[in-house]
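User: Before I run my own analysis I want an independent prediction to cross-check against. Here's the chain; please return only the structure tokens and, at the end, one sentence I can use as a sanity check.
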Amino acid sequence: MTAPRPTLEAVAERAGVSRATVSRVVNGAHGVRDALAERVRRAVEELGYVPNQAARSLVTRRHDAVAVVAAEPETRIFADPYFAQQLRGISKELTAHDSQLVLLLTEGREDHARVGRYLAGGHVDGALVFSLHLHDPLPGLVRSAGVPTVFGGRPDWPDWEDGRDDVVYVDSDNRGGARAAVRHLAGLGRTRVAHITGPLDQTSAADRLEGFRDVRAGVDPGLIARGDFTSGGGERAMRELLDRCPDLDAVFAANDLTAAGALRVLRERGRRVPDDVAVVGFDDMLPVAEQTDPPLTTVRQDIEGMGRLMARLLLRGLDRGTATDDRGDGDGLGTSGTSGTSGTSGTSGSPDTSEASGTSGTSGTPDTSGTSESSEDSRAPASTASGVILPTTLVHRATA
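Assistant: Structure tokens:
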């Protein structure tokens, strides 16, 4: 016969406190003295008590789950190491706060409708949305669902400024990083610098193109080729550039996968890197940048740290917006929260960016395979009225 599950009353009896005190400790409420809270936690561990999530949600109004919505097909999400790093950062932060990650992917109209219904159905406490494309319906869907949201990437969807006070986002200094890359190439004496863009319906790619143009004002349009953040796109664009501008002597690629594809084509065409053509990428995804031949000089952004900060801003807003009833047996103080900020839920306010400076470099062991320097445009995190821009760093390896 299966032993009965320990109850809240059993924990209260073991700890020598009231049921209300146990409830406050289990549900993470404040106002219980440290000594009492420790007795409750010890009793929970000794008895193996597991809170009933449905009952807990009635008290806390929280589901301890966050939707992570990626506006990309699953074939790209699971093949591109960029998304693996960002999801790792999100997962680490959510796990540290005992919250579950619910991954939702969108590829077509039916997926958007499904995600919209799920978000509106009260299954999650909030949403983290990234990799948006221009005219993507997701911002409107999360607004209609009324869930607190943090976006990954600078917003640029139609009419976003109408509700900009409610839009919270985290991004990297894409434009400043691009300027640093192109200035580095110019400093090497390269005069025919080409650029392979990312998909220009995404703000990260558009900002990197603008950074390129900031340094190469009046650039020959033939030196710009459209890519799509994939190695295959990098190969196609590199062939196009070499056919059109065979005298090019440098390439700034919009991301590392694009650069890897470009390097393969340069090798096929007999171009020596960096002697004939210097190459700089963007992202510093180590599984890519360290494996290219030769190793890739690139702009580092803290992809994992960006994911962690997105989750941190959302959870902090949720904590400020959760009111708990701490009335009990006299050993706690009543507290209540005020409506917090985390995106499009209509609870406006600016994110607390005080921890932004601690996110850069949180993605793991520092890379020692190349030297790095911060660009003059992006030496420290910057906050706007509604978001945080994390710094980028140029990492010198062998391609430039």
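Sanity check: The first helix runs from residue 8 to 15.
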